[in-house]
Amino acid sequence: MIFYPLMLFIMRLDKFVCKSTELTKIEAIQHIHLGEVSVNGEMARDEATQVHENNTIMLNGARLKTRDFRYILMHKPAGTICSNIDEAYPSLFNYLVVDKASELHIAGRLDADTTGLVLITDDGRWSFNITSPIRQCRKVYRVELSRVLTIEQAESIATRFKNGVQLQGEEGLTRPAKLEVISSNEVLLTITEGKFHQVKRMFSAVGNRVVLLHREQIGEVRLDVEVGQWRYLTESEALSFSQ
Ligand code: URA
After folding, report:
1. Transmembrane residues, as ranges (predicted)?
2. Residue 122 annotated in active site
3. What per-residue confidence (pLDDT) applies to 42?
4. Domain 138-218 belongs in CATH node 1.20.272.10
5. What pLDDT is stored for residue 130 in this prediction?
6. Residue 157 has what pLDDT?
7. Angle separating helix axes 25-33 and 13-20, nearest 10 degrees
8. Pairing mode, if any, of strands 115-121 and 210-218?
9. From CA 88, how far away is CA 86, in angstroms rounded?
10. How far is the CA of 194 from the centre of ligand 1 (A)?
11. Is any atom of ligand 1 closer than 6 Å to the C-beta of 140?
12. Is 115 close to ligand 1, i.e. is its CB under 6 Å away?
């Protein structure tokens, strides 16, 4: 297990109490309301108080320390699902043998047939930085298309993606996306949001169809392990999503 000693995580007091004890959220809030929790020597009765691990947080006179968060990169195989449990397909977590795997979640799901880079964590604030369109975190997909593209068609699609396309059932256009041509039926697409089936729907909106989809990169983190393998992120990789 990798530790991330320099990362300063700000979180709500009730979350801090949960993360550093066996208490549920409701129990943590009860202890806070009863005045049993102090932050830097002051009683804190508001569960929404923002705290971090450099604060001295006590519960009934005992200092609480948070567990370290985990940040994991995995190469998702085709035919697995981004869920903690097996459903129609086996869960990707079958490949991840770590303690308390049920506490982990996936920061940006992929479809069952999509392969590639998946980031997994137990830090909700960190995954928000990856998945929220507000944060505009880049995701790079390698896409194989059913219909070959001429240079003119590729240029026209690149312009449409740059300007945003209308996906059925969505309010507003997609955010500006970048198309790079690899060959007549293979492209790289960079997007900064993660609508349901977004890449497949974007190509469908321009009259093509995705045959193979593979995520190569999220932010500055590139996929560098074999299919089905995983590793912990380095400290600087994990920190790159916390700024
Ligand atoms: N877009 C899709 O259509 N599918 C994925 O799995 C990821 C992005």
Report:
1. none
2. no
3. 94
4. no
5. 96
6. 98
7. 120
8. parallel
9. 7
10. 8
11. no
12. no
